[in-house]
Amino acid sequence: MKRSLLFAAASLSLLGASVAQTGPSSSASTVLSSIKSGAPTRMVYELDARAMVFILPATGRASFTVDMKPDSYAIKSRVRTTGLADVFVNYDMNLNASGKTSAAGLKTTKYVSQNNDGKKNRRVELDITDNGFKMAAKPKFGNLGDPAATAEQVILANDPLTALITFALEPRAKGADPCGGPIKVFDGRQLTYLHLKRGNANLVKQKTPAWTGNTIECHVTMDKIAGYKKGESNNDTLTGIDGPLRMYLAPLENGAHVPVKIVADTDKIGKVTLTARTLRFEPLVTTAAATKTGGGR
Question: Which of 294, 257, 296, 247 is nearest to 279 (CA)?
Answer without folding.
Answer: 257
